[in-house]
Amino acid sequence: MSDSKVKALRLARAWSQEQLAEMAALSVRTVQRIENGDQPSLETLSALAAVFGVSVTELSAQSEAGEEALDKRITAAREQLDAESGFWRMLITAVIVCVLLFFLNRSTAPDSDWSLWVAAIWGGLVAVKGLRIFVFANLISQWHKQRLQRLLRK
């Protein structure tokens, strides 16, 4: 990490270390350490890059191959986080709707169990999505890469 990069970007915007720390949700001491040459974590680099409106690789002092790998790791991590967040939103929505439907079912047609069918189907869909995100994500990613390589060879 080049200490002059963060400091130069900060000074070019006429920001104090305190302002940068606040915008990046970091402590002032963390900003000071980075400007003094300490190696920041990937999360810290990502926060600083977002504040400055630059890529993480522009802030890091790694080789070009390392920069590409770092950007790919960050992109993959963000995609995984988005997928996991979507799963949890779907699960919470399913639970709330199924509970409401269950009470509606019991109050309007107590002899029928149609809400259980809805819950079973929706539960199956949530389970499949969960397996895809948490269990088979790497396998699916590898298959996509291999398939893309095969298609590009044709």
UniProtKB/TrEMBL annotation:
InterPro entries: 2TM_dom, Cro/C1-type_HTH, Lambda_DNA-bd_dom_sf, TransReg_Diox_bact_type. It holds the Pfam family HTH_3. Residues 6-59 form the HTH cro/C1-type domain. The keyword Cell wall biogenesis/degradation does not apply. SMART domains: HTH_XRE (SM00530). GO terms for molecular function: DNA binding. The keyword DNA-binding applies. The chain crosses the membrane at residues 87-104, 116-140. Keywords: DNA-binding, Membrane, Transmembrane, Transmembrane helix. It comes from the Bacteria. This is DNA-binding protein. It comes from Kosakonia pseudosacchari.
